[in-house]
Amino acid sequence: MRAAVLTGPRTIRVDEVERPEPGRGEVRVRLQGCGVCASNLTPWEGADWMEYPTPPGDLGHEGWGVVDAVGPGVADPAPGDRVAALSFRSYADYDIALADQVVKLPPALSGHPFPGEPLGCAFNIFHRADIGPHSVVAIIGVGFLGAVLTRLAWLKGATVIAISRRQSSLALAREYGADHLIPMDDHQAIIERVKDITDGRMCDRVIEAVGKQWPLDLAGELVGFGGRLVVAGYHQDGPRQVNMQMWNWKGIDVINAHERDPKIALRGVRQAVDAVTAGVLDPGPLYTHRYSLEELDAALDDTRDKPDGFVKALVTLA
């Protein structure tokens, strides 16, 4: 099979490698595609903790496809079932997943891409945010994750303030239900605008979905007394400083919304499948750019640089 191998910073080759065989309790998925996650960017650019070359297919963790083989002891899913997989080497033609870490996709989703992991991540973040029908919610950073969270908050009946750098992202937030749009360009101006919107009370919930220091600082400023700051951005480029005096004074809850319990991760994917199947959420417009496996380097560069209109990249495999 083909598999992408990261051989060094910003250097990828596609190798022909042996197709893996499923062991006990495992299934093999013939992948149809894999989403490109922003968490790939630090390994792509090169980090002190990275070891090269990576295992074949490594870093790809947003795959979906069709089960084509099962290991001993697996009765469900069966060969032929289309699934979203929680697996970790999906920049390849095939990947191995635990049988209890895949979610079957219904016929209604046939022919549609379904990167289950990031969709499930959004549902789990939303659960941790505890947004109510009268909550005032600020979402800082409207990419794929921020757009889905905007939609979920709108569906709940919350008032949503979308804050993002690009005008195209703000337009997307409006389409997905945001009530207020604020360009992320001036720290104090953003604070003053949110004060105006909330009559000085600030926000019940603030979701930081960027993964950088300034948006985290801003999130602390925007959350109101007794509110909740939800860290959804993936902070992987070093330590962060926080204004603990302000956090203490406001009496806020701070939630790191990155789930590591496989059962919870799976729950989010199932909720996403149900929502998309029911037509409650349409993620299709968010899949803006598609690449072949041989173009994975371009997909990663565009995920970093965000050309006009970019939201999420998919690598198509079949």
TrEMBL record:
Domain Enoyl reductase (ER) as annotated: residue spans: 8-315
SUPFAM superfamilies noted in UniProt: GroES-like, NAD(P)-binding Rossmann-fold domains
One family name in Pfam for this protein: ADH_N
Top-rank lineage group of the source organism: Bacteria
Keyword rRNA-binding included in the entry's annotation: no
Oxidoreductase found in the keyword field: yes
Gene3D superfamilies: Medium-chain alcohol dehydrogenases, catalytic domain (3.90.180.10), NAD(P)-binding Rossmann-like Domain (3.40.50.720)
Entry's family note: Belongs to the zinc-containing alcohol dehydrogenase family.
Lineage, highest ranks first: Bacteria, Pseudomonadati, Pseudomonadota, Alphaproteobacteria, Sphingomonadales
Key words of the record: Metal-binding, Oxidoreductase, Zinc
InterPro entries in alphabetical order: ADH-like_C, ADH-like_N, ADH_Zn_CS, ER, GroES-like_sf, NAD(P)-bd_dom_sf, Zn_alcohol_dh
Protein name as catalogued: Zinc-binding dehydrogenase
Cofactors required: Zn(2+)
Signal peptide (UniProt feature, chain positions): none
